[in-house]
Design goal:
The protein is an alpha+beta fold. The protein has 7 helices and 11 strands.
Length: about 190
């Protein structure tokens, strides 16, 4: 994109603000936003929102460092953590609530949304996976943990294709066409 896509305008705010607002409008009890590149700009646009901001000075080393930075700030009483991407503004609050409800009703420790059979985001991990999440490295999310525990995964079919869409390219952004995430079929990235 040539610039931080999370800070680009989206509707009446920015891509990141919309994504954060969707989580704030859901049943999530605490929203932690991990910031790195352009941290001060992000801090300014999120200043009025009831979120916990965590600066990740190692963001250039990949997504895993952001997950680890955020996990270190999760309340010790939490029973699960929801990993979400800041460039997916179309994941609505109702979809997030459906995932939470399914997690609460299930004995499974990992909940992944699916749209038309493709895995997407956000992914809920029971806190029993905190230790494994703290050990991930590089530019990956929880994909390896999901692969290692297939019997503990609950896929939840949702009606919102937003779980598989992000703002991918400058062309798709400027034309108003959001693109399917090419890695959507993996979930947990």
């Amino acid at each position: 994109m040539g610039k931080p896509k999370q800070l680009m305008p989206f509707g009446e705010s920015t891509i990141l603000e919309q994504a954060v607002d969707n989580f704030l409008g859901s049943g999530i009890s605490e929203v932690i936003v991990v910031i790195g590149h352009k941290a001060e700009e992000v801090r300014e646009i999120l200043a009025a929102k009831p979120v916990k901001l965590v600066v990740n000075p190692d963001y250039e080393q990949g997504m895993s460092t952001s997950i680890i930075a955020g996990l270190k700030r999760v309340d010790n009483q939490a029973k699960a953590v929801t990993l979400a991407l800041g460039d997916q503004p179309l994941i609505d609050s109702q979809t997030i609530n459906k995932l939470i409800d399914e997690f609460d009703k299930s004995s499974k420790g990992i909940v992944i949304p699916t749209y038309q059979g493709k895995r997407g985001h956000p992914v809920i991990f029971d806190m029993k996976y905190k230790g494994e999440l703290l050990k991930i490295r590089g530019d990956i999310g929880g994909r390896e943990i999901i692969r290692e525990h297939p019997d503990d995964v609950l896929e939840v079919a949702v009606r919102s294709e937003g779980v598989c869409i992000d703002i991918d390219t400058a062309d798709s952004y400027s034309s108003g066409r959001l693109t399917q995430v090419s890695k959507c079929s993996g979930g947990g990235d």
